[in-house]
Design goal:
Largest sheet of chain B: 6 strands, mixed
Order of helices and strands of chain B: EEHEEEHEEHEHHHHEHEHEEHEEHH
Strand content of chain A: under 5%
Shape of chain A: elongated
Oligomer: heterodimer
Distance between the termini of chain B: 34 Å
Structural class of chain A: mainly alpha
Helix content of chain B: 25-40%
Radius of gyration of chain B: 19 Å
Number of helices of chain A: 9
Number of strands of chain A: 0
Largest interface: A-B, 16 and 24 residues
Number of helices of chain B: 12
């Protein structure tokens, strides 16, 4: 009985998510467009997340160089540290860590904001005023997630590699030129494309999940708190799962 | 299937459904109702929220929906706005049959309706001016200075001109409700819906909100449906009218004909148990009504 109820609720939730995605895609390509809201969300999601992404990227690259340096030393391959940092950052850590940071910062804030609007009837008020909440609230956020997460990922990749360079050069004594040539030599031509394709999907998934959770809040302010946690947990798991399946697909297609 | 009709004392009694059905022609006649509910039913899971709800609202009149919490009052407003779809029955609003209209077709019809939500539901991130002019800014091609002029006019009507550039968080509870009324009336809708507009307000502030509702009904000829469990406010609205004299607006006790135009509907567990004017409600001998009124 409990399992049946849980299955039904989960399927209804999934159905709601798919419907929201459908309405979002339709809203993104048909009038009316809320240009002002789109610009505002690009600023909030993109520029607003810059600091956290810069810090995460830098320290990840630095720690990667630090840890891998110890292992590489055992094989006398310290000069290859750039290759390891570059490939790891561009292919995996840049997209995934940026996505997880965006999930924590942006996903939680979207779920809380839309959830609060739902419990205070502002979403109903929007509809009563003849505005479609999906076009007004969801589409601008999804567009911002879709386009700003890749931009942030590129920045995180670069800052991460730079973090690795700081450690490699100043602590491990690897020559600067050796480090940078190692970074470029270690990459296949497909790698930057793979690293750049992932964040589009991850950004879309994070924001749509957060919007879906936020718009379905019930239970007052307590519900908003629960929704925030739920959005972060679901989006984080989705990021890792989507990353896995995308990687598998792209390895199959490109390598 | 059985429905209910109003007895001599206003209390609803069981009648065959076929007798109680409001003819659809009624919606097209010269005195066409602004709102027509015909045997509307709605259930959430196993719970019946509305059961055979039938009523009409004429132009410029007020319907006051009373009832305990959970009796289905707010649900009626949500159905009127198309925010909820009934399981059965027919709903006409401003000459359009809306009970099964999809969201895209419902949107333009909402332009002729205004809704005041329980706590105001003002948009936190927008100023008072942006809240009040929301529909005009977002959905019309009206020049910005004209929108601003309309916003100033509406805020002047409710006496909050000086708050035009404030944020909702800077307003008191009563001011928020009045701004919500201003937002609802900004596009001059023919129908205004109020969902417990005075709940949680002190009696003096509640009276200022009541006055705005009376002014809109009597001076702007807006039809209205008000959901409340504040009897004091319901009777005040039913028994007062607004008058404009030498440019000044005053609220005075209404004449007998005007009082009769305001109809009360009492809901209990999703059913209409009373329909009638203030006098019929006051003098009703029904035990439930007596308990509710006491």
């Amino acid at each position: 009985m409990l399992l049946e109820r849980w299955t039904k609720a989960s399927l209804a939730d999934l159905q709601g998510y798919v419907l929201l995605v459908g309405r979002t895609l339709r809203g993104a390509v048909s009038r009316p467009f809320f240009v002002h809201d789109v610009v505002e969300q690009f600023e909030q999601i993109g520029v607003g997340s810059l600091t956290v992404v810069l810090l995460t990227g830098f320290f990840t690259g630095a720690v990667l160089a630090l840890q891998s340096g110890i292992t590489l030393d055992q094989f006398g391959a310290r000069s290859l540290v750039g290759r390891l940092v570059g490939a790891s950052m561009i292919l995996e850590l840049g997209p995934v860590l940026t996505a997880l940071m965006i999930t924590g910062r942006v996903g939680s804030s979207i779920a809380a904001e839309l959830g609060s609007m739902e419990v205070t009837e502002q979403i109903s008020a929007l509809r009563a005023l003849g505005a479609d909440p999906v076009r007004k609230l969801v589409v601008p956020r999804v567009l911002a997630g879709l386009f700003m997460v890749p931009v942030l990922t590129v920045i995180a990749d670069f800052v991460g590699i730079a973090g690795g360079w700081v450690i490699a050069t100043f602590q491990m004594g690897v020559a600067s030129g050796v480090y940078w040539s190692s970074v470029t030599e270690g990459l296949f031509w497909q790698d930057p494309w793979v690293g750049l394709t992932k964040p589009f999907f991850l950004g879309f998934v994070i924001v749509t999940i957060a919007c879906h959770v936020g718009l379905n809040v019930s239970g007052g302010t307590q519900g908003v708190g629960r929704a925030t946690t739920r959005a972060v947990v679901r989006a984080s798991i989705a990021v890792l799962a989507v990353d896995f399946f995308l990687t598998k697909l792209m390895v199959f297609l490109f390598y | 299937m059985r429905a209910e009709r109003k007895g001599a004392d206003g209390v609803m009694e069981q009648v065959p459904a076929s007798e109680s059905t409001v003819t659809l022609e009624e919606a097209f006649g010269p005195r066409a109702p602004v709102v027509l509910f015909d045997r509307v039913r709605l259930s959430f899971d196993e719970t019946e929220v509305l059961s055979d709800i039938t009523f009409t609202l004429l132009k410029g009149h007020t319907k006051l929906l009373l009832g305990a919490s959970g009796s289905g009052k707010s649900t009626i407003l949500k159905i009127l706005l198309g925010l909820l779809k009934p399981d059965a029955g027919i709903v006409w609003v401003n000459g359009h049959r809306i009970e099964s209209l999809p969201e895209e077709r419902m949107m333009p019809l909402r332009n002729d309706m205004g809704m005041v939500f329980q706590e105001g539901a003002l948009f936190d991130s927008l100023t008072v001016a942006e809240n009040v002019g929301f529909k005009l800014y977002e959905q019309t091609r009206m020049p910005l200075d004209e929108v601003r002029a309309r916003v100033e006019e509406v805020l002047g009507f409710i006496g909050l001109s000086e708050y035009i550039d404030r944020m909702p968080s800077e307003l008191s509870g009563g001011q928020r409700r009045r701004v919500a009324i201003a937002r609802a009336m900004a596009t001059k809708p023919r129908l205004l819906l109020y969902d417990e507009p005075t709940t949680g307000l002190d009696p003096i502030t509640a009276t200022t909100v009541d006055d705005e509702i009376i002014k809109l009904r009597d001076l702007e000829e807006v039809s209205s449906i008000m959901v409340t469990h504040q009897l004091r406010d319901a009777f005040y609205i039913a028994t007062h009218s607004a008058r404009r004299e030498d440019g000044r607006i005053t609220i005075v006790p209404a004449d007998e004909a005007k009082v009769r135009e305001a109809e009360f509907i009492m809901l209990r567990d999703g059913r209409i148990v009373f329909e009638g004017d203030a006098e019929a409600l006051r003098t009703s001998k029904d035990e439930y009504l007596r308990t509710f009124l006491s």
